[in-house]
Every structure is written in structure tokens, then in C-alpha cells.
């Protein structure tokens, strides 16, 4: 007997991940995103996702808060032709109302994410561990599907209580200077 091992290409991995992401958002499977990504960029993206999930699933709060800058730098280092091809992509644009219905600015979104991650660190850490496990097990569709759902949790939750006040109320006798400092920077 011979065993047949089927291995997905990097572009297939990305497509499968996007399929899950779009399914969670009740959108048709995307057909125009992955064709914009050349093979070399796809390989870099797949490797980077694994590295980011590894770091995020094992990281401290400060590690998590440093991820947006790492991701931005990575995106800036990709082949500019990928970004040019994706510019104005209708499928990506269809995600905007799903995650940013109030048309928040990039800074407002960043503050919202930082506040959520700070206030719900243990939950977010658990999510990232789950996504990391799924990614390394080759369950790319589930990674996309679950990541999309977690994104809704983070971006659709309204923070009625200021994060700084939350810590003063919840931990009045304990000092959380590092967290308070991060929140004040917002």
C-alpha cells in the first residue's frame, strides 16, 4: 500500500482561510483576493500568519499590543504589486460594513482593539491559542471562520466603562501601573 499525501499550496491555504472568514460574515466565497497574491508573497504570508499566531498565543499583553505594528511592517514589505491589485477590491470592501459600520478612523479602531484586548486579555489569549492550534493542524477554514467571529467580538463590543476606571473599580488595592500606562496612551 502506498500513502497519498495531499498538501495544499500556500495560495490554497490563503483561499481556504478567506473562505472561512467570508462564510462567517455571510458573504460569498471570495474569488478576486488570492489571485492578486503571487506565489512568493503567498508563501511569506502563510509563514507570517503561523509566526504571528505562535507569538500571540504565547505572548504577554505587551506582546499582543505590539502585533499591529509588526503586521503593518510586514504588509509594507510585501510586493507592492499585491497591494496595487487589491486596491479598491470589492470583496475586501464588502467586509468594511461588517467590522466598521460606524466608519471609525484607523486610530479609533486601534484604540477600540487595544481597549478590548487589555480588558479581556485572558479571553483573547485563549482565542489566539485556539487559532494557533487550528493553524498548525491545517484547519485553515476554521481559522478564518473563528478569527472573523472573534473580530466581531472585539470591534462590535461597546466599551461603556473607560478602561482606566475599570481597573480602579475592579482592583482598587492592587497596582496595575503597566496597564494603566498603556490605557492612558490611548
Outline of this structure?
The chain has 186 residues and is mostly helical. The chain has helices spanning 10-24, 39-58, 61-77, 80-86, 90-93, 96-99, 106-119, 121-136, 140-156, 163-170, 177-184.
What does the model show?
- By secondary structure, the protein is mainly alpha-helical.
- The chain has one domain (10-184).
- The protein has 11 helices and no strands.
- The chain has helices at 10-24, 39-58, 61-77, 80-86, 90-93, 96-99, 106-119, 121-136, 140-156, 163-170, 177-184.
- The model is unreliable at 158-175 (pLDDT under 50).
Tally the structural domains.
Answer: 1
Give the DSSP E fraction (strand runs of 2 or more residues): under 5%
What about the largest sheet?
Answer: none
Put simply, the count of helices is: 11
In round numbers, the mean pLDDT is 86
| Total E-strand runs | 0
Strand pairing plus helix content: what structural class?
mainly alpha
Order of helices and strands: HHHHHHHHHHH
Helical fraction equals 55-70%
Oligomeric form: single chain
Estimated radius of gyration:
18 Å
Low-confidence stretches: 158-175
Cα distance, first to last residue? 61 Å
Shape annotation: globular
Amino acid at each position: 500500500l502506498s500513502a497519498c499525501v495531499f498538501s495544499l499550496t500556500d495560495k490554497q491555504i490563503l483561499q481556504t482561510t478567506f473562505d472561512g472568514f467570508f462564510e462567517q460574515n455571510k458573504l460569498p466565497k471570495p474569488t478576486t483576493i488570492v489571485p492578486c497574491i503571487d506565489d512568493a508573497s503567498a508563501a511569506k504570508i502563510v509563514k507570517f500568519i503561523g509566526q504571528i499566531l505562535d507569538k500571540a498565543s504565547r505572548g504577554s499583553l505587551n506582546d499582543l499590543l505590539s502585533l499591529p505594528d509588526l503586521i503593518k511592517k510586514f504588509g509594507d514589505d510585501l510586493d507592492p504589486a499585491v497591494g496595487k491589485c487589491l486596491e479598491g477590491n470589492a470583496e475586501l470592501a464588502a467586509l468594511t460594513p461588517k467590522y466598521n459600520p460606524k466608519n471609525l478612523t484607523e486610530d479609533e479602531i486601534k484604540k477600540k482593539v487595544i481597549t478590548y484586548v487589555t480588558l479581556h486579555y485572558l479571553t483573547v489569549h485563549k482565542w489566539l491559542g485556539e487559532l494557533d492550534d487550528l493553524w498548525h493542524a491545517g484547519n485553515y477554514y476554521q481559522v478564518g471562520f473563528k478569527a472573523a467571529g472573534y473580530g466581531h467580538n472585539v470591534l462590535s463590543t461597546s466599551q461603556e466603562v473607560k478602561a482606566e476606571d475599570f481597573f480602579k473599580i475592579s482592583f482598587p488595592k492592587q497596582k496595575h501601573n503597566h496597564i494603566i500606562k498603556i490605557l492612558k496612551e490611548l
